[in-house]
């Protein structure tokens, strides 16, 4: 099965990420989740082969990417960035990709972060993380946010958004 991204919007994306993961695992065909393990850097892992996940949250949004291969996903609300931040975050050859807008900064940042999540590698210093990443990737834009995925197969065309009511199912179904 190819990489899929599931998303939900509510009050607190951080609190929604685990229920979203449980629902996404069922929708993806994995059934109930086993106890998660964690890498040395804190990345959640599903025990066994061929089951990879990545979680992200920002503001009221939560995303969950599932795949048979390593995957990284990131979502960020578009915020005003400090003037010197692009020069700190982007290598000289990446600056032409930055058009000076907060949306452009956020899109490029989500690419960097999703690439680091793919390989479970540090994001610091951000200038050392390549954009565009040297792997299949895609960015998604919504009202006031950007998200990106990095994976080893074809990135999904879009995000499958679920309703908050759908998350209730994971608490009432064994």
Structure description:
- The protein is α+β, with helices and mostly antiparallel strands.
- The protein has one domain (4-172).
- It is 28% helix and 26% strand.
- Strands 4-5-1-9 form a four-stranded mixed sheet.
- α1 packs across α4.
- It is globular and about 50 Å long.
- It starts with a strand and ends with a helix.
- The mean pLDDT is 94.
Short description:
The chain is of the alpha+beta class and 174 residues long.
Please tell me the overall pLDDT. 94
Q: Structural class per helix/strand content?
A: alpha+beta
What's the structural domain tally?
A: 1
Count of β-strands: 9
**What spatial order of strands do you see in the largest sheet?**
4-5-1-9
Strand content: 25-35%
Largest sheet: 4 strands, mixed
Q: Which regions are unreliable across 5 or more consecutive residues at pLDDT < 50? A: none
How much is the radius of gyration in Å? 16 Å
Distance between the termini: 24 Å
Keywords:
174 residues; alpha+beta; four-stranded mixed sheet; 4 helices; 28% helix
Detail the topology: elements first, then pairings:
Elements: E1 4-9, H1 13-28, E2 37-38, E3 44-45, E4 52-58, E5 61-67, E6 71-77, H2 85-89, H3 102-119, E7 137-142, E8 145-151, E9 160-161, H4 164-172
Parallel strand pairs: 1-9
Antiparallel strand pairs: 1-5, 2-3, 4-5, 6-8, 7-8
């Amino acid at each position: 099965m190819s990489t899929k991204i599931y998303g939900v919007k509510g009050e607190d994306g951080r609190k929604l990420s685990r229920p979203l993961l449980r629902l996404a695992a069922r929708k993806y065909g994995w059934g109930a989740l086993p106890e998660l393990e964690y890498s040395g850097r804190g990345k959640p892992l599903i025990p066994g082969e061929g089951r990879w996940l990545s979680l992200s949250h920002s503001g009221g949004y939560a995303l969950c990417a599932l795949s048979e291969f390593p995957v990284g996903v990131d979502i960020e609300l578009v915020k005003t960035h400090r003037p010197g931040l692009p020069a700190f975050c982007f290598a000289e050859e990446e600056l032409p990709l930055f058009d000076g807008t907060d949306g452009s900064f956020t899109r490029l940042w989500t690419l960097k972060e999703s690439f680091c999540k793919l390989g479970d590698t540090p994001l610091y210093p951000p200038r050392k993380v390549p954009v565009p990443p040297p792997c299949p990737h895609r960015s998604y834009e919504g009202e006031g946010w950007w998200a990106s995925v990095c994976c080893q197969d074809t990135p999904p065309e879009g995000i499958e958004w679920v309703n908050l009511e759908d998350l209730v199912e994971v608490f009432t179904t064994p």
